[in-house]
Write a structure and sequence with these properties.
There is one protein chain. This protein has 310 residues and is mostly beta strands. It is built from 1 helix and 27 strands.
Length: 310
């Protein structure tokens, strides 16, 4: 059965006043955290309030949680023309540390989104070495994926990518999926022994149009710049399309359904990541690079449990 769309009216705005909440992560204990430009992360509290935690610095972008409850942060340096390292924050101790600033001699300039597997490997995207936003999304293929292993070793595992962004692992961890923002698509890589990746293949169709220099701008609702991605428990891959204020889902049969769409952008404003939480994993949270709030609604299907929720 195809997914039932979620009406815009079903969403509640929480954490009003938060700064650039690109992503959200929900712990096994139910605590909810979001990226915040004013600190390492902000904890979303009852009643819609939030509490900032950790030091300010750079632009916390995609976040995730390891099995120990520590929050892994991809710091998107290009946003403020600062370095873009991979970092980690422990809500229990308050320890904020930098895990990586370079990989195989390549400086991390735009760490974007981390995902952690059951073995403790941290997979992450470095989107680009461009200096400005117009350059970043011009179709260049200077993005790469890297892995940080539990033994401290790190490697570049895929390169030649067009602004690699959100990442997701299949439930059996046989494949790593990656949104290529400036290709308007999703690709997947087979995961090989030793935390390596095989060759990429496109997963599903191109998901919309892109801006082309010298050409008329596409209609807003058709823009296909892919961002954050996440699997639900039925194997549908949800894909955020921030330029279109839309979230779509690619089914296991690689058919595409529009799950969320807000033409006005007054509620769903540049959605960048989807996250599930709650006792039944049906509390859906959506981050944004434009809104000063996080969205929450009930999902028609539970999310795929992440390593920190098992």
């Amino acid at each position: 059965m195809p997914l039932q769309p979620i009406p815009v009216s079903a969403f509640e705005k929480v954490a009003l006043g938060i700064d650039r909440p690109e992503d959200v992560v929900v712990g096994k204990d139910g605590r909810v955290f979001a990226a915040d430009h004013q600190c390492a992360v902000a904890e979303l509290m009852g009643g819609g309030s939030f509490h900032r935690m950790g030091p300010k610095g750079g632009a916390p972008n995609g976040i995730n949680m390891d099995a120990q409850g520590r929050i892994v942060i991809a710091n998107f340096g290009i946003y403020d023309r600062e370095p873009g390292p991979l970092q980690r924050f422990d809500p229990a101790s308050g320890l904020h540390e930098t895990l990586l600033t370079e990989v195989e001699g390549r400086r991390l300039t735009s760490s974007n989104y981390p995902v952690i597997d059951r073995a403790g490997n941290i997979w992450c995207a470095n989107s680009t070495h461009a200096e400005t936003w117009p350059q970043a999304l011009d179709g260049r293929d200077d993005g790469f994926l890297f892995v940080l292993r539990p033994d401290g070793s790190a490697s570049v595992v895929a390169e030649g990518l067009k602004f690699p962004n959100g990442l997701a692992l299949s439930a059996d961890e046989r494949f790593l999926y990656c949104a290529q923002t400036s290709a308007a698509d999703v690709v997947r890589f087979p995961v090989l022994p030793g935390a390596r990746l095989g060759p990429a293949e496109r997963y599903g169709p191109v998901l919309g149009e892109l801006m082309r220099p010298g050409e008329p701008a596409p209609e807003h609702g058709t823009l296909g710049y892919t961002d954050g991605i996440g699997f639900d428990a039925e194997g549908n891959l949800w894909v955020c399309l921030p330029g279109a204020n839309r979230v779509v889902a690619i089914s296991p049969r690689r058919e595409v359904t529009s799950v969320i769409y807000d033409p006005s952008g007054q509620i769903v404003n540049h959605p960048t990541n989807v996250t599930w939480g709650g006792p039944d994993l049906k509390d859906l949270y959506i981050g944004s690079i434009r809104a000063d709030y996080v969205l929450k609604a009930r999902s028609p299907v539970a999310g795929q449990p992440q390593v920190h929720q098992l």
